[in-house]
Amino acid sequence: MTNAQARPEFISRPALIAALRDELTRRAGEMSICRLAAQTGIFCKGFRRYSDAELKEHYSWIAKRNPDAPRAELEEIADRWQLARQDVLGALTACDVQQLEHDACGGWDDFTDDDLARFLRELTGRSVVVPH
Question: pTM of this prediction?
């Protein structure tokens, strides 16, 4: 690796989020990035970042209908809900939905610029920095 290749690229936070959005949506296909992250252990870990109790708390309106539902069922319904909210709002990802609604998480607001840059590096190998 040359010295020029080792230097990170300087980009804005919106450009960094756009790059992550592109990569995550490409990988997710027909599932929410919450489900993708949970299944693959990438990015924020999606639904898996929460304990069973926390998942039920974050998706209480779903868990309330069937409090004894297994975690896999709750995640399946939460995945469909995230996708439906994306469609309703015209949002590209669950993070974009949560950026607006802040009910299951804070979306992109949950992450610092350094967090987002690390996620992009882990997913693509691309090294970026958001200047402060």
Answer: 0.88
